[in-house]
Amino acid sequence: MLRILFCLACALILLASSVASAAIVEHSFHVKNLTVRRLCSEQVITAVNGSLPGPTLRVREGDTLVVHVFNKSPYNMTIHWHGVFQLLSAWADGPGMITQCPIPPGGKYTYKFKLLKQEGTLWWHAHIGWLRATVYGALIIRPRSGHPYPFPKPDKEVPILLGEWWNANVVDVETQALATGAQPNNSDAFTINGFPGDLYPCSQNRIFNLKVQKGKIYLLRIINAALNSELFFKIANHNMTVVAVDASYTVPYVTDVVVTGPGQTVDVLLTADQEVGSYYMAANAYVSDAGVPFNSTATRGIVVYEGAPTTASPIMPLMPAFNDTPTAHKFFTTITGLAGGPHWVPVPHQIDEHMFVTVNMGISACPTCLNGTRLSASMNNYSFVNPTSLSLLQAFYFNVSGIYTPDFPDTPPVKFDYTNDSINILNSSLLITPKSTSVKVLKYNSTVEMVLQNTAIIGVENHPMHLHSFNFHVLAQGFGNYDPLKDPKKFNLVNPQSRNTIGVPVGGWAVIRFTANNPGVWIMHCHLDVHLPLGLATAFVVENGPTKESTLPPPPPDLPRC
Question: pTM for the whole thing?
Fold first, then answer.
């Protein structure tokens, strides 16, 4: 009897400790026009709380985050909390017309959700058109009080947000491209924490400085917030140790270069172990499709050691070539998950849904465009179109028909030589991508294995694919066509990396696996915003489970209306 009482008392103490460690963290976002000066000219942008990037949100695992968004901009607005699981809080996920109708100009909406079973670096951004070019910021989830990191404790933590800058209104850039069918203009600069760096005009003093002390350890929380660019990142004469990706801990991996696709995050430990001095950090584009114009510039910041002479010029790192796919592939495939670490989820072995999904570029009819067609994009030859009268989540919750069709296919309609560009571009049946709002319906708690196969119908490039609400295990990646007989032998079922955004290799494939344990509607899409409006997306409708704890709750009363 005493033993039972003792165990009960211990359980109550643990429960009380858990509850006491959780807090409600509240913020207000005022989204409005902001005039900033970059690259020799003034530009009106959309920004949060008058800053670029927007505010960094800091919480602990288990906290509840409440963000009141006041849209004082001239555009419709939503905010997406990139990588957050949103367990039973799908109404707060944020993608426009997927989980909510947009917040109109002059409107407001409160996002409220718990940060459960994940910690590390995530971020938030606008999820309407190209507005996330300037509406974004870091979301940092630290361990609960008293829970250490599974790596040496850093002396300081520093968010590093990599972005893109246009000397233009990004809404106009997107609108013009969609209206004419032409490729949108490339960005004019890359940025580090909003600063372009001293390689650009009128930017000698617009450069990010990181002051360090010799011997100290710094946790750099690197976020690729760029709109359309995968990026290489280096610091001259310094190695970095990767300890997490997409808010999932990894086996420590020492590297001199970090590679990130839009939407991805990488946490690295930087030890200030070089001679006292100044060293450039730099980022430039990784471009896997050599036939596409791109921004060939580089952004720089400076790592300045305490006591460094002010007259000495910083040392510049030797950057990879823009098309250095071997370096990118090595980085993406060498990382492994920290099996048994905090919030580690073992790989599920029983699979309920097998999917083979092609990622295509094609064309669609466009009467207003220059040549009568525009670029289009698709998954399994279905080019996704957002609904206009009601969000997908509302249609699911209220059982409204006619908003979407539950017929997204598990395989492409035509089997072909996916990565042979000399053949595929001549096949007109592959070029045309029909438009639809087609979704895949999943049973609650079902396990999905998906082969993502890049194609070479129009161009061959790496596609960063982001899945809302879920992390997935990356079992394997490779080049060419996926071989269902040979390639499963390469699967890492022991300690694969866990991500929410995967760069499907140029002219290649990736295999992911996840458990659909959260009811709601969750979009999967390319995080190159040049491709998302073209239809490179689909959505998963995860049905309710058998209990209240596995059932989507009703929408909040202030949910915006269409």
Answer: 0.95
